[in-house]
Amino acid sequence: MMSPDGRAQGATPVDHRAAIMVETARFVAALENADSTTPVPSCPGWTLADLVKHTGSVQRWFSALLHARVQEPPRTRDVDLRLPEQWEGYADWLADSATVAAVAFAATDPDLPMWAWGVDQHARFWARRMLFETLLHRVDAEEALGLRPTVDRPLAVDGVDEFLVNLPFAGSFAPGVANLRGPDRTIRFRATDGDGDWLVRLRPDGFGLDPSGAAAGSAEATVRGTAANLLLLVYGRLDRHAEGVECEGDEDLLTLWFANSAF
């Protein structure tokens, strides 16, 4: 069953606002003595400087949406970034971006009705979305720098849930999701390290999380891994054939899903 905010009932509660500050601090720490021109393999064509700019820009843009209490899709993404001219100032700028977000959160009731592109039409949508933008790009940065990223399990579970809940609404920037249709076909994503079980149902007119959530029963295809690996998998940071990921069942269905669920 779904809660009113679009989260599958039983998902681990996460303080998204506080977690943004923690994840940003981890990102900033990884940047110490880093080369701005370092390629980011998980974001083809981007350098570390591009990744930092994108992450801080998203935090500042979402913050502007919160301050504006937007009730319809914004017509522009323009926002005063205050981006420093030199790379040496990027880490402090990213840390300050999280502070800008914290100010926006403090001034906004999370239950305030707002436009959002996903299922949850409240201000809290933007905090949850900002968290996983920040977390995934922190992982991208650490991997690019040869570090070994970790993802806290409660965040990973919530992140998989957030991705799967909102993916059906992402067609404006992820056009492949329009291909995720089928004659009542199901894919189960199951965490192997504790709670975390999601059943996605493809229908002739679209797809989404099954209302019964993790109800007992078989699925045409099943994907298993730790919550952290499932999070990296759904976001394309892990291949489904990677160590630590187990897939079984309808191979064509799995191929369809992973070819069209890129976010």
Describe the structure.
The protein has 263 residues and is of the alpha+beta class. The protein folds into 2 domains: 134 residues, dinb family like domain (Four Helix Bundle (Hemerythrin (Met), subunit A), Up-down Bundle), CATH 1.20.120; 103 residues, Nonspecific Lipid-transfer Protein, Chain A. The protein has 7 helices and 5 strands. The two termini are 24 Å apart.
Summarize the structure.
The chain is of the alpha+beta class and about 260 residues long. It has helices at about 15-30, 50-70, 90-105, 125-145, 155-165, 225-235, 250-260, and strands at about 185-190, 195-205, 205-210, 220-225, 245-250.
List the main descriptive attributes of the protein structure presented here.
263 residues, alpha+beta, Four Helix Bundle (Hemerythrin (Met), subunit A), Nonspecific Lipid-transfer Protein, Chain A, 2 domains, 5-stranded mixed β-sheet
